[in-house]
Specification:
The structure is a single chain. The protein has about 375 residues and is an alpha+beta fold. Helix content is about 40%, strand content about 30%. The protein has a twelve-stranded mixed beta sheet with strand order 7-8-9-10-11-1-2-3-4-5-6-12. Strand 3 and strand 4 (about 120-130) form a beta hairpin. The N and C termini lie far apart (about 140 Å).
Length: about 375
């Protein structure tokens, strides 16, 4: 060894393991697989979300069920529409200019025109603070009918009656109203109690009708339509008669229906006994629902009776967004006062007027 050589001995280098080279085609395949997996996650996850978040709630059955649930939760109901009734050779129409019920404020309003055989009778009624107020409109179209009924030279009397009744608000106080209602319906409850219990019973029955287990209808067709310029979905339904009797029996057992039944002094015939003799045919049942799952319009057509005597009825009601203000009308005349005035015109003496019970009996007929 050279004494002047100071370099350290060299350590042999460790060979670096070679990194395996992935062919270019394999890289593309891995990237494609990752992309496909990601796409599947997005598509499947999005589809599930869309199914449960969009498709399921927007299935016709669920649209109707939600709309009905929304409707039964409302404390205020306002609508307009028409009711047609045809029996044998007689037909009548009720043009419902406004129907409003507010269960919270305990007020109601009806503004309608009854047309029968060419005779029109405008009627407006309000329910405020337990009292009812009724106003008959222009009575000129029924004067001839009254004249024919009264006979003789009754025109002057009929003219006086028209002056006192036409466009005159008449007040039926809660005492008289309760007496008349109880007599007519054999009810043990006040009109207010009957109204509230009826509303609760109807809400429970309607909710049960759209329940999957007790569903008595089938949606035959859906289509897009407009109601008062608003986009809606029209649902055309048919009822399953084979399920109606069982459904009716279940409705009788609902808590609200039992509470309503307590108001009646007479026994209510069971659905099981009435279904066998039922001759009602539902020819149309259509419901229009808007985008916010609110019922906008309802159309119902049915026929009752047999071939010898059949009555056809059509009901078409459209919901109204704006609610009217319902107040006691100014200048309302107590019914007993009007009753006395009319009796005097008709030549009835005071002894024939009777009291509130006699008038209640007259109102309940």
């Amino acid at each position: 060894m050279n004494p002047t050589d100071t370099s350290a001995p060299t350590t042999p280098a460790t060979p670096t393991p070679a990194t395996p080279t992935v062919p270019q085609k394999s890289k593309k395949k891995l990237g494609l697989i990752a992309l496909v997996v990601a796409a599947l996650v997005v598509v499947l996850g999005g589809s599930a979300g869309a199914y449960y978040g969009i498709i399921v709630p927007n299935k016709p059955e669920n649209i109707l069920k939600t709309a009905v649930q929304n409707f039964t939760k409302k404390d205020t109901f306002t609508a307009k529409g028409k009711i047609d009734v045809t029996a044998s050779e007689t037909s009548s129409t009720v043009d419902m200019n406004m129907l409003h019920v507010d269960s919270t404020k305990k007020v109601a309003l009806v503004d309608m025109t009854l047309t029968m055989s060419g005779i029109k009778l405008p009627v407006e009624a309000r329910f405020v603070d337990g009292n009812a107020y009724v106003k008959l409109g222009d009575l000129s179209t029924i004067k001839s009918l009254l004249g024919a009924y009264a006979g003789g030279d009754s025109s002057p009397v009929i003219d006086e009656i028209e002056k006192k009744v036409s466009n005159q608000w008449v007040e039926i106080d809660k005492t008289l109203l309760s007496s008349a209602t109880s007599s007519a319906t054999e009810s043990k409850c006040s009109p207010e109690e009957v109204t509230m219990r009826t509303r609760a019973a109807v809400n429970e029955a309607v909710s049960a009708a759209v329940d999957g287990e007790d569903q008595v209808y089938t949606i035959q067709k859906t289509s897009s339509d407009t109601v008062d310029g608003q986009k809606t979905k029209k649902l055309e339904l048919t009822l399953d008669k084979s399920k109606l009797a069982a459904f009716g029996k279940k409705v009788e057992d609902l808590p609200a229906a039992k509470e309503l039944a307590k108001c009646s002094e007479s026994a209510v015939e069971s659905a099981e006994t009435t279904a066998s003799g039922e001759t009602m045919d539902l020819t149309a049942l259509n419901v229009w629902v808007d985008g916010s799952k609110q019922i906008k319009r309802v159309e119902l057509k049915l026929a009752v009776g047999n071939d010898e005597a059949k009555t056809a009825m059509g009901i078409d009601m459209t919901m109204v967004k704006d609610s009217p203000t319902v107040e006691k009308p100014a200048g309302a005349k107590p019914l007993m006062q009007l009753y006395g005035e009319l009796s005097s015109l008709l030549g009835m003496d005071g002894s024939s007027l009777g009291g509130i019970d006699d008038l209640s009996n007259s109102l309940s007929l």
